[in-house]
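Milestone M4 deliverable, item 7.
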Amino acid sequence: MLVDTPFNRYIVPPEQGVWLLPHVDHEVQCLTDVSLVSFYIATEMRHDMPKECAVLEISPFLKVLIYEARDFTDHYSWEDSQGLHLRLILQTLSEAPAAVYQLPFPSDKRLVKVLNCIQQTPSNHDSLEQWGDVVGASSRTLSRLFKKETGLHYTEWRQRLTIQIAIRKLIQGNPIAVVADELGYASVSAFTYMFRSKTGMTPRLFKGKQVR
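Output delivered:
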């Protein structure tokens, strides 16, 4: 899935979940067939959950818990077996590590122009100095704005955008070599190294998880 909020974009591959805070406007786009299970957690139960929206790693154990809870009714007691099951899901969710599929959105019009240009031409690996000539700002100004508006340095933000584009293309069935070329990598091995360093798995393994 692709989840957009006013401030961030989240890619949610298989074996992942997205945590959204209350009252956050969001739009969900399914890039492939999706089976979705949603949990709504009362305010008083959220104290151990992340304080910001995030993509969470879903362990095999947690996946089984979620699968078994799909058929629970609304008529459960917090003290009965179903309530105990849901409390275990909540506890396990609160301990789930955050994944790297979050992309903070900038609002400055110059950074937005950079974002749009890279999305249209993902193979573009221009430096901040080169982007400065395009958007009319110094590289120092752009560097400061990226850190202020996204919390990330440009190189890290650029890599996260690359990961999001790569995941979307891989999910859509594009061959790894084609994705690597479209993203401007000189070789599949260079693309694989980047992808594995950011996601913990190779593109081939990631594609394999899509068909299970």
